[in-house]
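G., the chain you wanted modeled:
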Amino acid sequence: MTASGPAPERSEDFEALYDLADPRAYYRGLAPSGYAMPAQVAQAVRRLSVGRRPFHVLDFACGYGAVGLLLRTGLSMADLYRRYADAADPSDDARAFDAAPGRWRIAGLDVAGRALAYAQAVGAVDLGFCENVLEKAPSAGLTAFLRQADLIVESGAVGGLLAPALPRLIAAAAPRRPTILYCPRPNVDPGPIASAVTAHGYAVAPYGAPVAYRKPLSAAERSTVAAAAAALGLSSDAVFDADGFMRVQMRCAQPS
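Predicted structure as tokens:
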């Protein structure tokens, strides 16, 4: 159980937990799955930003700002789960995390306004843009940030939305050509995303070896993911590792 009701059993159950003023119910729901993608993305950002300061990152669908928190504090996902398991007041989180900017200037983009405000309040992001780029072009403020951006990241939660969103972000960034790092789950077809960015002069390649995303939240979710992945031509061994985690192949799109 979470503070907001039954424990989530599939990714769709997080819709009720994704835009709260207090992220504890969200993290408590995720903890049993060992959700690890923000840490994988943060480590990739560290590698991609070596020797570059300041390094401008747009976190697409940033939610409560886990990627930025991990970058700026050096904490692990296990640390976040421990922190959010307690009953502390969310107003104490900014002081508890003390997220120093370091060499990264981070903007968060999300339609979840309360989650985005929390990410800003704790220092996970410097700027927050509550915008739906599926429905309209980026605002003047988001466009200004994109024209400085070195990297756009997405940590796997909304892979199916990237194909229509990325062309708008790429167009707004021009003449800047930021690298794009995205992480479609194994039940998300990566083809439309690759087509969307290659049509704008990008080349897509796998980024490293497949990494652990999270464990399914229930047997039913495991079956659903396995069936969707099988329809994309992926075997069970390609979808789940020996510990039961879903595998994610991170992908990097760079200007060709």
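The first strand starts at residue 55 and ends at 60.

Shout if anything looks off.
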